[in-house]
Amino acid sequence: FNCVGAERLEEDVFEIPFARDAAAPGEAARAAIAAAAALAKANPERMVCVLGHAGAQEGGAQTGLQLAARRARAVAEALGRLGVERDRIRAEARRAAFSRGGVAVPQARSVTVVVLP
Question: I want to staple 54 with a disulfide (CB 3.0 to 4.6 A). Which of 68, 84, 93, 100 is the partner?
Fold first, then answer.
């Protein structure tokens, strides 16, 4: 399966916040990760996309993409530890999103977990 278009879905989406430059989810992320895992476990036929993001202020393009990948991998591993089968999870890095004027959007330092329909 692939995650193309997953960021446009609005239902069964969980935002996992990250501190600036952090690759591991903090305490504030636990509830959202647990909720995503519970939904995925209750719906074993649905796949899970884990989309990592990094802000423009978190290094250059390549550094930011690597940080986004580490964030996505950390959340995917956390979902696996909570009982979601690894073959149902796809972790991907996404480039930082910007609004008009080049300002990074708030979700830039996060991971988006989408339980696909």
Answer: 68
Look at the block and give the residue holding tokens 């193309």.
4
Give the 3-state secondary structure percentages of the chain, helix then strand then coil, rounded to 5.
40, 20, 40
- The closest of 94, 89, 88, 116 to 107, measured between CA atoms, is 94
Contact criterion met (CB below 8 Å) for 17 and 82: no
Where do we find the tokens 């959007």? 105
pLDDT in tens, 42-64: 999 999 999 999 887 787 778 88
Q: What are phi and psi of 36, to 5 degrees?
A: -65, -40
- pTM of this prediction? 0.89
Spatial neighbors of 102 by CB under 8 A, at least 6 apart, are 56
User: Is 92 a residue whose pLDDT tops 50?
Assistant: yes
Whether pLDDT at 26 is above 50:
yes
Q: Is residue 70 within 8 Å of 23, Cβ to Cβ?
A: yes
